[in-house]
Every structure is written in C-alpha cells, then in structure tokens.
Write a structure and sequence with these properties.
Blueprint lengths: L11 H7 L6 E13 L12 E15 L4 E12 L7 E12 L3 E8 L32 E10 L2 E8 L26 E2 L9 E10 L2 E11 L4 E6 L5 E7 L1 E13 L2 E11 L5 E12 L8 E11 L11 E10 L7 E9 L5 E10 L4 E11 L15 E9 L1
Parallel strand pairs: 8-12
Antiparallel strand pairs: 1-2, 1-21, 2-3, 3-4, 4-5, 5-6, 6-7, 7-9, 9-10, 10-13, 11-12, 13-14, 14-15, 15-16, 16-17, 17-18, 18-19, 19-20, 20-21
Length: 399
C-alpha cells in the first residue's frame, strides 16, 4: 500500500503474482543524509541550519518464463529530523510485466520518464514529483497505471490508463526549501469532481530515424503541477492552496546524435491550466573523450529554456540560459562531477548547482551536492527559497 495522507491503494493481485515464481533478487541502499544551510530562513519556524535524514530504498526483481515475465517491488522510506512532511513512505514501483514479441503489458505502480534535456524535465508528465526529496524534480512518486506498449517496425506506441492521482509532496512548515507562506496540502482543490480518482490517459509514439530519437505524446488528466492559490487556514494564517487543473498536454522530445555531440529538444503545448501556453527547452552536450591524454571525459552542456507565460509562469525556466560541465573520471571508484549555472535573462538572477559522487569501497558510496541562489527577483518562484542555500553529504551502503 501507499502510506500518505491516509490514502490506500489495493495491490493484493500484484502481490499474489509474486508468489507464483521462485525467489528473485534483492538489492538497494540505506543511507544518511546531512544538509547544512548557509543562511537563516525567512520564517522563524524554520529555525535549523543543520538537517539529517535516514533513507532506505530496497528493490526486489524477479524474472521467469524465459525473461518474458517480470515482477518488481521498490518501496521507499525516509525519516527526517525536522520536517514531518519529509518523513514519508512510498511505493516507487510494484509492477508485473508481460513481454511478447510485438507487445508488452505493464500493470501496477511504476515510474516512467520522458525527456532528453539536462536542467529541466519539461515534458515528463506521467509521475508526480516528490518535491520533499529534492527541488530538481528528479525524484518521483510511483504512479498506479496500466501500460500497453505496441511494438512495430515503424515505432512503439505506449498507451497509459492511470486510475489514481498522486498529490504533490511539499515541505512542511518547519521544513526548508519551501514557499512562504507555506503550502497547506490538506486544503487541496481539484477542477474535477472525481478529485484524485479522476482517470488520466496518455499515448506516446517513439522511434528512431537515423541519428534522431523522437517521442511524440499527448496527456489528458489532472495536472501534476498544481497552481498555488493564496488563502487562509483555520487559524487565519496565510497559506497557499494547491489547485489541480484538468489539462491537455501535447509534447515532443527529440535527441540527435552526431559523433560526440548530442542535440536535444523538448517542447509542449498545454491547455486547461488557467491559460493555454507553450514552452520549449533545447540545447547540446558535447563530450571531449580522454582529455589531455587521460581516461577522463569532459562533457560541456548548454541549453535555453522558454515559457511564453513570461514572469507569470510558476517556474524558474521562463527565459533562462543554462550552462554546465560533466566530468567522468572513468576510475574504479566511478568518480563523477556535474556543475552548472542557470541565468535568468530578465532579472539577472543565478542558480548554481554542484553534484559529485564517488564509490568509497565495494558497498559504500559518497555523494555531495551544493545549491546556491543569487539575487532572484521577488517575482521569481526561486525567491521563496533564496535563503535556503545548502551543502549536502549523502553516505549510503549499497547491497
């Protein structure tokens, strides 16, 4: 079951499927995360500069019938020192997969990723973002679904039916990296009278044409990205209420490979979310292989992000240029470094990001992350967390 806000999803049929085969494989990780915030927060209730969390994410996979059937189970657990909303349990994956030559059936809770650009996941719309995990929107909640993939020589067509909607996770009142005023998930509103039981649909065509990998999709259902409306809670305190519109979204993602160069493009057209709008993100990644006669690879990234809603867009990517560099040391410790900066062309605000990782031994892995917000405009969504610069260390035991 999914344990959050008192809501449960029955998954007994999938659990029964897992008992029909021999034991599979368990693996995953357990880790300790520590964040050091370099400034005091806007809200005195966020009175901590150091925050610690314990994380546990095991994964179980089993294949049988000559690898034509698969069962996967991936729960997630976090216990956070200060933020009760960040202490949560989720099912990232609980899936049965049946594979045939011309089709695949995937049933249960899954994570599906669409997109190609580095700094923003513009067209990725199937799963809800787990925003209490990280503001980079890469962590996702598991989405209940039935997914049928029709595999043909001319491409693959994925059909999705999603009978249950997952609300976005937000930091609690004492948590950091949150809006001010805080978001009250208990007062969430929906355009659809069915609320979280609204059935969502999506279809995606994907194929490759020479050097081009293309995905063309349409989604109809509850927007994973809520609008935040000002209101008062029961104690007459100012809060923001998530409002979930019913939307149509048509999207395109393209990646072209030419030698060491990758060209990337994502674009969407969305209606139903207050106003109809278009957004695009595109750029390149060029890799220098074996720089200075070493085994180290250097990748350079450059992207442009645009949203035609302008300053009213509830995203930092309304008219921004992003540049970055990726170092892969190709050593036995799998050492990697990624750094980047996003520049708002309208306001001059900057967002710096640094991510690094290294295997310390056979089972121990160390990751570091640093994020800094420089002079965001008061109209920029990043302003709410502009005093939440932090440095993070994450030490995990992998099994």
């Amino acid at each position: 079951m999914i344990v959050k806000a008192g809501k449960r999803i029955c998954l007994i049929p999938l659990l029964l499927l897992s008992t029909t085969a021999d034991a599979g494989e368990w693996y995953g990780y357990a880790g300790l995360e520590t964040r050091l915030f370099t400034q005091d927060a806007f809200d005195p209730r966020q009175d901590h500069s150091l925050n610690t969390s314990l994380v546990f994410e095991p994964e179980y996979y089993h294949e049988w019938d000559d690898n034509r059937q698969l069962f996967a189970f991936a729960p997630f657990f976090r216990v956070d020192q200060h933020d009760s909303e960040r202490t949560h349990v989720d099912i990232r994956e609980l899936t049965y997969v049946k594979v045939e030559e011309s089709w695949e059936l995937r049933l249960g809770i899954r994570k599906v990723f669409w997109g190609v650009v580095e700094f923003q996941h513009l067209v990725d719309v199937i799963n809800q973002t787990d925003l209490v995990e990280n503001i980079d929107t890469e962590d996702k909640l598991g989405q209940p679904m039935l997914n049928l993939a029709l595999i043909r020589d001319w491409g693959t067509v994925d059909l999705f039916v999603m009978p249950y909607f997952r609300e976005r996770e937000f930091a609690g009142r004492q948590g950091r990296l949150r809006t001010s005023p805080p978001i009250d998930e208990g007062l969430s509103q929906f355009e659809s009278g069915a609320k979280e039981k609204h059935v969502d649909f999506a279809v995606r065509y994907s194929h490759y044409f020479g050097a081009f990998d293309i995905g063309l999709a349409h989604f109809y259902g509850t927007s994973r990205e809520p609008r935040l409306l000002p209101a008062l809670d029961a104690g007459n305190n100012p809060v923001l209420i998530p409002f979930y519109d019913t939307i149509h979204q048509t999207s395109l993602d393209v990646q072209a490979t030419h030698g060491n160069m990758l060209w990337k493009l994502e674009a969407l057209h969305r209606s139903g979310q207050d106003e109809t709008f278009n957004a695009v993100a595109g750029g390149f990644e060029y890799t220098f292989v074996g720089i200075m006669d070493s085994v180290v690879d250097l990748g350079l990234l450059g992207e442009y992000h645009y949203d035609d809603r302008g300053e009213s867009a509830p995203t930092i990517f309304e008219d921004d240029i992003a540049i970055g560099a990726r170092l892969a040391f190709n050593d036995p410790s799998s050492t990697q470094l990624l750094t980047g900066v996003i520049w708002d062309r309208n306001t001059g605000g900057l967002f710096y990001n640094l991510e690094a990782s290294r295997r310390m031994s056979e089972h121990w892995f160390l990751e570091a992350e640093a994020r800094f917000f420089i002079d965001p405009s008061t109209s920029d969504p990043a302003f709410a967390v502009s005093r939440d610069d932090y440095i993070e260390l994450f030490l995990s035991f992998n099994f």
